[in-house]
Amino acid sequence: MLANQSTFQSHLATLQGDNDYIIARKKNEWEKFLELPMPGRKDEFWRFSSHRNFDLAQYALAEKPSPATAEKAIAASDLTKDSAGCLVFVDGYLVHSYLDPKLAGKGVVWEPISSAFIKYPDLIAEYFLQEKAKLGSEKFVALNGALTSSGCLLRVPENIAIDKPFVTYHWSAAKNSASFPHTLVVAEKNSSASVLDFYQSLDATAPALVCAVGDIHACQGAKVFRKNVQNLNDKSLSFIIDASIAQEAADIKTLSVHLGCYRARSEQLVHIKGSEANVKMYALTVADEKQEFDQRTLQIHSAPHANSDLLYKNALMDDATTIFSGLIRVDVGAQQTDAYQKNRNLILSPGAQAHSLPGLEIEANDVKCSHGATSASLEPEELFYLLARGIPRKSAYELLVMGFFEEIIEKLDNEALIEKLRHILQEKFHSRTE
Q: Would you say residue 74 has pLDDT above 70?
C-alpha cells in the first residue's frame, strides 16, 4: 500500500550514498502528502472530474524486473531512430542508459534522477520542485517528491545547441505497480534541447499507477521542446504534472499526447518570468470507451512583452469524457502580453462528453489576451465526399480525424517520431471504430 509509513521507509532504505539532504527533503514531501486532503467533488480544480476507482491503496512499489522483462522493454523502446541520450525504466527501475560521448565531453549532464540526487545536490536544491503546483494535484506532486526514484536530470550548458532528442521510456510491467518518474531539465543561457517522456505498458492487462512530475527551466535565451506521450493500458491511472519556467527571451514548446489509461490527468503550468519570452503549448487526445482525460492548464505572465499560445485538440468516441480547464493569468506590470488559448473537441459519438472551461485573469491594462473553445462533429459534407469516392466509412473517419490532428502532429521536429506517433494513433483508431 502506498499511503503507509512502511512503504515510505522501505523506499528510503533503497537510497544510497550521502543523502542527508535528500532524505530530509523526501520526508518533508511525505509529510505534505499525508497532510493534504484527497481531491473531492467540491474542489473547483476537479470540477467535472470523476472520483470513481480513485484508490491508491491498490498500488504498490514493484520488485525489480526480471532480465527478460528488462530486455523486452529495451527492445520496444524505439520511438525515435536516434537520440542524444536515452534512459529506459521498468516499474521505476533503470534498465538502460545512454549519453552521446561527445555531449558528455561538452559538459552535458544526463543522469538518472536517483543518482543526480547524490551527484548534483546544488542543482537539485535550486531547481527541483521550484515552481509549486497550483492546479489541484498538490497531494500527488508531494507523493512524487517523496517516492521518486526514476526519471532524469538534464543540464545543458550555456551556448550548447543539441539537435537530437533526449528520450526517457517509462514502462509499467508488474500488476498494480506504482512508479513516480521525475524529469528535471535545466537549459542554461542560449542553449537548446528537446526532451521526450514516453509512458507505456508492457502488459496490456496489468493495472498500474504512474504519477509523473516535470520541472522545465529555460534560462535566458534558451530553447526547450518538451514532449510527453502517454499510451498506458486501459487498466491504468496516470497523473502527468509539469511546471515550466521561461526566463528572458526564452523559448519553450510543450506537446502532449494522451491515449491510454481508464483515467488520466494532465496539468501544464507555464510561468513566464522574463520579458520577450515565447511559449507554445500543444496537446492531442484520443478518448474512447469510458476513458476520462482531465486537462488543466495555467499560463502565468509575470513579465512584460512576452507571448504564450495554447492549442489542445481532443477526439472523443463511445462514452468517453474530456475536461479542459485553462487559465491565462497576467500579473500587474506584465504589459504588452500577448496570450491565447484554444480547445477544440471533435465529438465522434453521441455518448461522448467534452467539458471546456477557458478563462482569463488579467491585472495589466495593455495586453492582448483571448480564449476559445469549440465542440463539433465531423462535417457531413466532408464525410460524404470521401464515401462517394468509394472510401470505406471506417477509413473515411480515420482520414478526417488524422486531418484534425495534423495541425499538432506537424509541430514535431523529428520525422521518425512523427511516423511513430501516426502509427500509434492509427492503431488506437483501428481498434475502436467500425
A: yes
Helix (H, G, I), strand (E, B) or coil at 303: coil
Alpha-carbon distance of 264 to 118, in angstroms, equals: 32
Read off the amino acid at residue 276: E
What is the residue whose three cell numbers read 525515435?
80
Single out the residue of 229, 95, 93, 215 nearest to residue 155, CA to CA.
Answer: 215
Residue 45 per-residue DSSP state: G
Rounded to a whole number of angstroms, the distance between the first and last alpha carbons of the chain is: 41
Average pLDDT, the chain: 92
| Upper half-sphere CA count for residue 111 (Cβ side, 13 Å) | 20
CA distance 65 to 90: 7
Q: 208: which residues sit within 8 A by CB, 6+ positions away?
A: 59, 91, 172, 174, 176, 177, 178, 179, 201, 232, 233, 235, 236, 237
Mean pLDDT of 11-27: 82
Question: Angle, to 10 degrees, between the axis of helix 415-432 and the axis of helix 393-409?
Answer: 150
- In the numeric block, the cell 526514476 is attached to 150
Nearest partner of 317 among 344, 353, 356, 342, judged by Cα: 353
